[in-house]
Amino acid sequence: MGKEHALVISNHRGDIDWLVGRVSAQRSGCLGSTLAVMKKSSKFLPVIGWSMWFSEYLFLERSWAKDESTLKSGIQRLSDFPLPFWLALFVEGTRFTQAKLLAAQEYATSTGLPVPRNVLIPRTKGFVSAVSHMRSFVPAIYDVTVAIPKSSPAPTMLRLFKGQPSVVHVHIKRHLMKELPDTDEAVAQWCRDIFVAKDALLDKHMAEGTFSDQELQDTGRPIKSLLVVISWACLVVAGSVKFLQWSSLLSSWKGVAFSAFGLAVVTALMQILIQFSQSERSNPAKIVPAKSKNKGS
Fold this sequence. Notes:
This protein has helices spanning 17-28, 46-51, 64-76, 98-111, 124-134, 157-162, 184-208, 223-247, 253-277, and strands spanning 6-10, 34-39, 56-60, 86-89, 140-147, 169-176. With 297 residues, it is an alpha/beta fold.
């Protein structure tokens, strides 16, 4: 990990699952070359616009058919990427909620698919397209399963801002890209099979509080990242103090009012970000009508 290109697929269990991928990439030494496929609407969020300075995003519409050419051109640009990169793709297409699970179970029952319990049915078109364009230069797929222990509160953006910790268990399995089937339909079925196995793995975690009997691997906390954060914090605080001293911003009512207005804007933006990050506010569950097996009905 961190020394090869990889396509990363994960279940989308919570509000900030993307942060799990970033932490994993950071501790593997390739955060600077981590990429993500995201909805176009996400780029209007302040945090995404800011983080675009550090990462690259492929912004797509909800329909893969509409944006497959965008995905293809974006992936082709990665063929000679100079650093080991991870391309993250949430193939479930939306975050997990009970309402979406019920919709997925109803759809699976009507179409004869395995009925999910802990995941949603993957939308395989984007995954198939990514695999078909990345086979020649990406050697591995990282199959990531994220679970929250029963004893730990779910991690949310609000808890993150409050500095409240949450425990997250992560299971990663490496698959060789060359071992995937050749046809698109077989690749799509491979992806569906992966999520059936992921569902069973989450059942085991719910029952036993762990993914397997294997010994946990401690990836550690890199000192370099801590030094970078401390350095930026000192720089920002020192710069803010110098600016206030130079501008005398708080020495007049006009300056105080301007500062209060700026603080209100920042608070409002953070509130929008927190609300957008909540699973309950993501796209509503949709049930695709199943084709009748009886042509006469």
